[in-house]
Amino acid sequence: MKKSWILLVLLAATLVWPQNSATIYGRIQWGNGRPVVKAVVKVGNVYDYTDVDGRYRLKGVPYGRHKFRIYYNRQLRREFDLRVNAPRIRRDVVLK
Q: Looking at the domain 19-95, which fold is it?
C-alpha cells in the first residue's frame, strides 16, 4: 500500500509540475519544395540534422527566448528569434 501511495504522489507531481523544456520539430525545404537534407537545425544548445525528407526534431529545449539557426554546408542559411513557451512547437522553414 505504501508503494502505491508513493507512486501515485510521484505521478501526480509529474502531471502538475510545470514543464520546463519543449520539443521543436518541423521540416526545412528549398523554395522549390525539395527537402533540405543534412542541414543542422540548432535552437540554443540543442541541435539535430534534417533527414532525407527535411524533417528534424529537437528535444529538451528549455523554455525562454532562443536563436533558431539553420546551417547548410557549414554556412548559416537562416536565423530568427524563437520564443519557446509550449511543450511542442512546430516550425517549418523555406530556404531561398
A: Immunoglobulin-like (2.60.40)
